[in-house]
């Protein structure tokens, strides 16, 4: 199932620094998965180097089977404007992506989760061609 799992939706995640440089950072990621091509946005609050900022970044990547890779590029509105590369695996139920992130040889681990109900809703939507409210992270009216 993971090989055909659509990753579209809202994910909550955390990344950790391998070096112990900073505290774990929680983030929110809205992904769109179009036949394995991933796009989206990430928002996070970072407290690092005396900065405490709400940051936004763009996501561009791919899914192939259970392998997931993407680049997170900060939008430059805060003091961050660099690229971070992520590579990991999605679990069988499509509710967890975990792996490693890297910035020029420095990095750490990450994990992202979404409720199983949303993973299943996206799967059903694709099977029957429906547009279910909330299945892609959108708010209900």
Overall spatial form: globular
CATH 2nd-level architecture: Beta Barrel
Give, in order, the helices and strands.
EEEEEEEEH
Weakly predicted, low-confidence segments: 132-141
Largest sheet: 8 strands, antiparallel, barrel
Tell me the name of the CATH class.
Mainly Beta
CATH homologous superfamily? Answer: Quinohemoprotein amine dehydrogenase alpha subunit, domain 2
What share of the residues does DSSP label as strand, in percent?
over 45%
Class from secondary-structure proportions: mainly beta
Secondary structure tally: strands: 8
How much is the radius of gyration in Å? 15 Å
First-to-last CA distance: 31 Å
Number of separate helices: 1
As laid out across the biggest beta sheet, the strand order is 1-2-3-4-5-6-7-8
Query: What is the third-level CATH name, the topology?
Result: Lipocalin
Arithmetic mean pLDDT: 83
The count of domains is 1
Give the helix level as a range of percent. under 10%
List the helices and strands and how they pair.
Layout: E1 9-17, E2 25-34, E3 37-48, E4 51-64, E5 67-74, E6 83-90, E7 96-103, E8 106-113, H1 116-128
Antiparallel strand pairs: 1-2, 1-8, 2-3, 3-4, 4-5, 5-6, 6-7, 7-8
Summarize the structure.
The protein is mostly beta strands.
How would you explain this protein's 3D organization?
- Strands 1-2-3-4-5-6-7-8 form an 8-stranded antiparallel β-barrel.
- With 141 residues, it is mostly beta strands.
- Helix content is 9%, strand content 55%.
- It is globular, with a radius of gyration of 15 Å.
- The protein has 1 helix and 8 strands.
- It has one domain: Beta Barrel (Lipocalin).
- It comes from Sphingomonas astaxanthinifaciens DSM 22298.
- This is Lipocalin-like domain-containing protein.
């Amino acid at each position: 199932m993971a090989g055909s799992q659509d990753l579209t939706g809202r994910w909550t995640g955390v990344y950790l620094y391998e070096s112990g440089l900073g505290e774990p950072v929680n983030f929110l990621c809205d992904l769109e998965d179009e036949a394995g091509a991933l796009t989206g946005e990430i928002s996070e609050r970072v407290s690092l180097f005396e900065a405490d900022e709400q940051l936004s970044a763009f996501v561009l990547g791919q899914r192939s089977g259970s392998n997931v890779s993407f680049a997170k590029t900060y939008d430059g509105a805060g003091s961050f404007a660099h690229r971070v590369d992520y590579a990991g695996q999605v679990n069988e139920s499509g509710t967890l992506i975990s792996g490693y992130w890297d910035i020029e040889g420095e990095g750490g681990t990450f994990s992202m989760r979404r409720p199983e109900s949303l993973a299943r809703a996206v799967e059903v939507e694709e099977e029957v061609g429906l547009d279910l409210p909330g299945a892609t992270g959108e708010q209900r009216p």
